[in-house]
Task: structure prediction
Amino acid sequence: MAYLTRGEEAGKTISYQVKIRGIVQGVGFRPYVFNLARRYSLKGWVLNSTSGVTLEIEGETDGVSSFLKELSQ
Result:
């Protein structure tokens, strides 16, 4: 999973693509990601595949960082 580096500035718009492997279909993962992204005012998409889920998010650095931290828990 991608995390922000120290050199990235707060308030800057960034985007990340995240790949999550494993069984995440049928467990409410996409609605969870949708609600989490809304909480941090992010835009993006989620795509299911046979190996897991790919998602792309875009927003301010602080929101993306918080999203990624919460998603990884």
User: Anything to note?
Assistant: The beta strands are 13-21, 43-49, 52-60. Residues 29-39 form the longest helix (11 residues). The CA atoms of residues 9 and 18 lie 20 Å apart.
